[in-house]
Amino acid sequence: MDLSQAQSGLSLGFHSHSSSNPIPLQLLDQREENLVEKDENQAEEEENFSILGHPMCIKRQRDGQSSSSSSSSPNPPKRVAVEPGLECRRAMVRGWGNQSLPVADPEIHEIMEKEKQRQVKGIELIASENFVCRAVMEALGSHLTNKYSEGLPGARYYTGNQYIDQIESLCCSRALAAFGLDPEKWGVNVQPYSCTSANFAVYTGLLLPGDRIMGLDSPSGGHLSHGYYTSGGKKVSASSIFFESLPYKVNLQTGYIDYDKMEDKAMDFRPKILICGGSSYPREWDYARFRQVADKIGAVLMCDMAHISGLVAAKESASPFDYCDIVTSTTHKSLRGPRGGIIFYRKGPKSRKQNMLLSHGDGSVHYDFEERINFAVHPSLQGGPHNNHIAALAVALKQVATPDYKAYMQQVKKNAQALASALLRRKCKLVTGGTDNHLLLWDLTTLGLAGSVYISLLLLYAFVYICTCLYSLRTNILPQSVMYMVVCVEIM
Ligand SMILES: Cc1ncc(COP(=O)(O)O)c(C=O)c1O
Question: Positions of the region Disordered (predicted)?
């Protein structure tokens, strides 16, 4: 706030508890050159209110008086007003505050309209994107963005959060309900701004710097936030910069995860967190096998179900909750909510004997994730939660729990399978030979085209917008880059 521009002629009175006489408190230096000197006839308005139990009063000149000076006035003021009157200033602020986007900022509005056209005119087949419904959009673009609410429901740093608390609590209970989780056994944090930050919050809460994590290699379809460094050793993601990561990979002939190699690597590397889930893996995950390995090495088993969380909620994919200790997700992919992240963690008594390797793995019979993860999200990594996002997520999660959503997810899978069959009929090569979920990997090298060229052709000659997460596997068998295209089919 630029106080130098604030209203002159406004003074704040402070009543002490012991006295009923307001102590006048001049908030601002009066700027002589702009100040209207007080007409003897001008009356003052007094407004009383209280802040944190302290009675206060505002004294202001009654509107219109300051500019009412004219030569015809019997008692003209000594100087002429140069600032608009209070009502005028109020009207200006109200007018500005109530302007619609096209009026307030036609430039941004016009670009936004173009983007809307782009979204509706093409066929978007990006596995990690979706279209939120109108109710989600309304909650996102709402007054909830105005409120600060650092902390958790019932324990905030700011006052005035009674409704924000209700919204976040409802969002949490809907999140648990959407995945059929018992609130006695699972807790959830809905505040992460993204899934990358959700994952990092898990590592921050559970690990010490330099501790080890292991996830699917990014070029094999994993995600950067599970740890990634280049073949030259350059650490790309923060999860590799602050923790030590070693990836497991897919079998380059079959495209399936090589579980035996994963186990061998995990036995040698002994990560404290073993991560399943990825960005471009078209098949079911063998969570039971991951659990076995995690138990052998005393690791926490975490699943990042970002891509398939909608399918999991609709029971159209196997559930990681049956085997994992921690489950994270984006909220904007198949879940069809606003852009953000979410963390589920086990709580209460451990369901079986687990000797986790974590520095705090003290043989306790209770999970201790809740406090660690909540503390990592805030205050360690984030500030105030985005309440408009949390409300929008609550709206989306309500829909996720309905039979309509299940029907939608079933259709998504059918669409993906229809596209896979059509491509296979045309002799296209799909990695793993097909798909179990909403995405498929199309090996473009058999067409003799680099993926980028192929996409350019699609953009030019078909108004189909198929996209992308192209990656290359450098192998001994195929010395050149092998391009795959990730396609998501989420249209009804
Ligand atoms: C498995 C997985 N985890 C995390 C992310 C990152 O999500 P965000 O963009 O919300 O950080 C993605 C995004 O594609 C993902 O596929």
Answer: 1-30, 60-81
CA distance 169 to 153: 7
Q: Which residues pair with 464 in a beta bridge?
A: 123
Q: In terms of Cα–Cα distance, which of 112, 102, 89 is closest to 34?
A: 89
Q: Give all strands of the β-sheet with 484-488 in edge-to-edge order.
A: 429-430, 439-443, 484-488
SS3 call for 49: strand
pLDDT in tens, 180-191: 999 999 999 999
Q: Which residues line ligand 1 (CB under 6 A)?
A: 128, 194-196, 223, 225, 277-279, 304, 306-307, 330, 341
By mean pLDDT, which of 93-97, 100-104, 290-294 is the weakest?
A: 93-97
402 is catalytic: no
Question: Hey, which bits of 36-177 come out as E strands?
Answer: 44-51, 54-61, 123-125, 151-152, 155-156
Mark whether 304 is an active-site residue: yes
- Best mutation site among 223, 333, 437 for ligand 1 pocket (most ligand atoms within 8 Å of CB): 223
Give me the sign of the Cα torsion angle 313, 314, 315, 316.
Answer: negative
Burial bucket for residue 60 (CB in 10 Å: 0-12, 13-18, 19+): middle
Q: At which residue do the structure tokens 């003021």 appear?
A: 77
150 is catalytic: yes
Flag the least confident range among 278-282, 366-370, 373-377, 449-453: 449-453
Return the sign of the alpha-carbon dihedral for residues 396, 399, 401, 404. Answer: negative
What stretch of H or E contains 451?
helix 451-461
For 425-438, what is each residue's pLDDT tens digit?
Answer: 999 889 899 999 99
Instruction: Calculate the CA dihedral of residues 152, 193, 359, 364 and round it to 10 degrees.
Output: 40
3 state DSSP class of 170: helix
Angle at 253 between CA 250 and CA 259, to 5 degrees: 35
Ligand 1 center to 294 CA (angstroms): 23
Is 370 designated active site?
Answer: no
Of 223, 124, 125, 123, nearest to 485 by C-alpha is 125
Give just the sign of the alpha carbon dihedral 142, 145, 151, 155.
Answer: negative
Distance 332 CA to ligand 1 centre (A): 9
Ligand 1 center–CA 195 separation, angstroms:
5
For residue 357, the model assigns a pLDDT of 53
Interval between CA 340 and ligand 1 midpoint (Å) = 9
- Number of the ligand 1 atom closest to the C-alpha atom of 330: 10
CA distance 85 to 63: 6
CA of 306 to the centre of ligand 1 (A): 6
Considering 63, 148, 398, 443, which one is annotated as catalytic? 148
Atom of ligand 1 nearest to the CA of 196: 11
Count the residues in the chain: 492
